[in-house]
Amino acid sequence: MASEILASNLNLKPGVCVRIVGDVLPDAKSFRLNLGKDHENLALHFNPRFDCFDDTNVIVCNSRQEGSWGAEQRETSFPFLPGSQVEVCFAFEGSHFTVRLPDGSEFKFPNRLNLDTINFLEANGDFKLRSVNFD
Amino acid sequence: GQDKVEIHHMDLKQGMTLKLKGKINDDANGFVINLGQSPGNLDLHFNPRFGEKTIVCNSQNGGRWEQEHRDDHVCFSPGTEIKLTVTLEEDEFQVKLPDGHQVKFPNRRKCSHLPYCCVEGGISLTSFKLD
Question: Name one Pfam family in it (chain B) (predicted).
Fold first, then answer.
């Protein structure tokens, strides 16, 4: 079953690394980790798709400003397996995010909204959040 | 620091433990951790007050406070990083303090699920974990 957890008023500044650990559900189709200001303003929408919207094993990243989605960035590195526990780190580095995947590989995503503070974090879809650290 | 971190749709069930880490601000007089169903319906309000050297616990039903419990064991210092665990049992909450002391507070409405958490006052949340 899809679950959602959200945290608000986090007041995270550049230099912080948001480390998320959770379980990918055994029958996972897709899950989403969102970072930003609120639901309508996401600096980073991180969406691994196992089998969803005609996509198989791809990570789709995007931003959302006042409810409008930006341009998708797709990553073909896909170190996720249904039924496993994973750790994903989002380093907020001001002008961009550096995302570290469970296999240690990294990619960058620009801070298109130019947010200086991350106040909102949300996890939903086929993912059960276990822990969040702000390092 | 943070003003008031709120977590919604948490999947904390009976028998589970919430582990929180945070940094107490240098100028803090206390802090608050609320757990419950929603902002006005709290099953555990946990409020260490440094000046009064006490921990006030209470619950809130539809915005109305209920009977306070106090525990005069305070082991918190401004400027330090702390770890707290809260276990939800059928009859009570067990809050384990950094020095191992346990504060117990009745689970007055026998809630089996806690979707809401709020951390506010003189503390910045650095980690939360559901076990």
Answer: Gal-bind_lectin
